[in-house]
């Protein structure tokens, strides 16, 4: 009882603090955006720029943004969502309007790679591909002194006449896709967070609120329009270039540049969503047990134990430096809202509702509203990093992981503005292989997997290295704890990987072989293995 009173005080203090901070924020005068500063190439005459950039300018005059166009260039650089990627400054940004223009750009990049090869210059990555620009991996979709291929003009959303699929441009943001589809009463199997781009999410795998019903997002792409290394535009589907179609389901930027995806769609319907916020200090053990028991049950094979409408649970332990507290946030979603809007039986029967909580809420809302709400957790332009690992459903390993998280956040307690969510999500055998075959390597998945990810924000540049290395160490320690208990697993959810991770190592030999064969066939000179930077290459030996 005494501890409950204490926590009521804490909860009240938390509410007061939040209000005060909100008020303070409101009272601050609106900050003037400083005028962007020119980057070093801004004063270089275009005829002194590298030859391939001059070719891009000559062939695609309306698509190339140079540093000398100071405001437009800065705006294009800020197309990267995470602040650290806004500090990686390319020589220029090329923003084609259609697949033909993109093909022209790729042909020029290919010629530059050939030239470098002939000149004996080792070909380091000199161009990057950007759709939503949200991937926080350092240099995931930008490149210092090279060319960023910006796909933001590919943003159309075109439903098929029969309503069964929707063709979506790679540069669209999920929130814009859903808003447009609301007008048609449709939804696609896509991302759960508003700012995220279609391209990166879909090419790396992608988890949707509808994944328990339909599988990974990539397994619901009926076809792809892609620009190959030789600049030609092809369609990859079950009947056209099927080998390419298969490897694009998880193969990210290794085969070409995708311009549009045709995704399966379904009639939109409201979701039921709940959030529970609890104190980690005396509820973590109970929360971990609830999570573990839920996963065991949902994968037990008992009738009704796996429910394809149940998305989640997403369980985050969050360290909030500002208040020096660790919270637990649990999100549960049910894609078929109960008529009475109350807790669906499936979630009511779990250990989550009986957690002692500061706050709990549930609501029936549209899919679009849920995506907006989930997307509000991080604003664009913040210092942000993300990394992941995978463990089996072993309670002891989960407890060890939590202890590692506690240790890391204690070490980082002086990092100003630190918000350190340590998130547990699951891939259940009931849905891991729904939809079309992909290359993720989960064919043999017969047990529930837990994707753990760190999604960390902080305030100051001086802490960049400290935080990044702490995230890496945390993941390595979790891996070691899992290995010690034989609860490790090779799969890595690529969408959440940090730049040093090697997700293709976890895809299994067969899938890697399929990808290498497709790379040799569709990109024989290795433009996307060598010239392209960011994301993850097939040669993971380094
Ligand atoms: C706040 C937040 C919320 C998230 N929510 C989810 C979620 O709900 N579900 C989920 O599965 N993931 C989620 N993610 C992870 C997300 O899927 C990845 O970060 C993804 O890479 C972002 O896609 P993008 O197009 O915005 O990224 P970008 O940074 O533009 O691209 C990511 C990678 O894909 C490559 N790429 C992009 N487009 C193409 C293309 N057309 N052709 C070839 N290569 C391409 C890029 O070169 C780069 O390596 C979230 C991430 C954040 C930061
Ligand atoms: C480009 O490559 C593809 C795939 O290998 C091939 O089918 C096509 O004929 C090539 N196009 C040109 C113009 O060389």
UniProtKB/TrEMBL annotation:
Pfam families from the xrefs?
A: FAD_binding_4
FAD-binding PCMH-type domain location is: 86-268
InterPro entries membership: FAD-bd_PCMH, FAD-bd_PCMH-like_sf, FAD-bd_PCMH_sub2, FAD-linked_Oxidoreductase, Oxid_FAD_bind_N
Q: What's an example of a GO molecular-function annotation for this chain?
A: oxidoreductase activity
UniProt-recorded name of the protein:
Bifunctional solanapyrone synthase
Which keywords appear in this protein's UniProt record, sorted alphabetically? FAD, Flavoprotein, Membrane, Oxidoreductase, Transmembrane, Transmembrane helix
Sequence similarity = Belongs to the oxygen-dependent FAD-linked oxidoreductase family.
Organism the protein comes from: Lachnellula hyalina
Gene that this sequence comes from: sol5_1
Ranges that cross the membrane: 6-23
Recorded hits in SUPFAM superfamilies, A to Z, give: FAD-binding/transporter-associated domain-like
């Amino acid at each position: 009882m005494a501890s409950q009173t204490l926590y009521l005080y804490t909860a009240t203090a938390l509410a007061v603090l939040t209000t005060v901070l909100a008020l303070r924020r409101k009272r601050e005068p609106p900050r003037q955006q400083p005028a962007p500063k020119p980057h070093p190439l801004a004063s270089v005459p275009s005829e002194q720029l590298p030859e391939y950039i001059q070719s891009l300018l000559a062939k695609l005059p309306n698509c190339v943004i140079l540093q000398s166009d100071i405001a437009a260039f800065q705006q294009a650089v800020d197309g990267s969502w995470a602040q650290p990627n806004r500090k990686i400054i390319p020589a220029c940004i090329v923003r084609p309007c259609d697949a033909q223009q993109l093909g022209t750009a790729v042909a020029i990049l290919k010629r530059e790679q050939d030239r470098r090869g002939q000149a004996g210059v080792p070909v380091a990555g000199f161009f990057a591909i950007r759709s939503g620009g949200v991937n926080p991996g350092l240099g995931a979709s930008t490149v210092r002194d090279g060319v960023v291929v910006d796909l933001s003009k590919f943003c159309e959303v075109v439903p098929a006449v029969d309503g069964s699929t929707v063709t979506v441009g790679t540069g669209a943001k999920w929130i814009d896709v859903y808003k447009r589809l609301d007008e048609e009463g449709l939804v696609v199997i896509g991302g759960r967070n508003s700012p995220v781009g279609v391209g990166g999410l879909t090419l790396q795998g992608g988890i949707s609120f509808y994944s328990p019903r339909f599988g990974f997002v990539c397994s619901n792409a009926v076809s792809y329009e892609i620009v190959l290394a030789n600049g030609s535009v092809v369609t990859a589907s079950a009947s056209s270039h099927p080998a390419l179609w298969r490897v694009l389901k998880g193969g990210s930027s290794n085969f070409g540049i995708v311009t549009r995806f045709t995704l399966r769609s379904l009639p939109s319907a409201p979701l039921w969503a709940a959030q529970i916020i609890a104190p980690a200090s005396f509820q973590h053990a109970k929360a971990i047990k609830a999570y573990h028991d839920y996963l065991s049950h949902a994968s037990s094979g008992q009738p009704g134990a796996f429910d394809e409408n149940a998305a989640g649970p997403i369980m985050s332990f969050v360290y909030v430096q500002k208040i020096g507290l660790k919270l637990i946030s649990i999100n549960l979603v049910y894609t078929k809202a109960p008529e009475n809007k109350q807790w669906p039986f499936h979630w009511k029967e779990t250990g989550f509702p009986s957690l002692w909580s500061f706050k709990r809420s549930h609501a029936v809302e549209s899919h679009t509203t849920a995506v907006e709400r989930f997307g509000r957790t991080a604003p664009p332009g913040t210092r942000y990093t993300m990394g992941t690992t995978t463990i089996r459903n072993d309670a002891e390993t989960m407890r060890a992981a939590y202890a590692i998280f506690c240790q890391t956040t204690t070490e980082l307690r002086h990092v100003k503005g630190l918000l350190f969510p340590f998130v547990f999500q699951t891939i259940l055998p009931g849905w891991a292989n729904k939809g079309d075959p992909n290359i993720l390597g989960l064919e043999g998945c017969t047990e529930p997997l837990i994707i753990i990810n760190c999604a960390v924000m902080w305030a100051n540049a001086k802490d960049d290295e400290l935080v990044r290395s702490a995230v890496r160490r945390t993941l390595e320690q979790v891996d070691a704890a899992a290995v010690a208990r034989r609860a490790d697993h090779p799969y890595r959810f690529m969408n959440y990987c940090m730049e040093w991770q090697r997700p293709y190592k976890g895809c299994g030999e067969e899938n890697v072989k399929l990808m290498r064969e497709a790379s040799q066939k569709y990109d024989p000179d290795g433009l996307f293995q060598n010239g392209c930077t960011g994301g993850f290459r097939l040669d993971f030996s380094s």
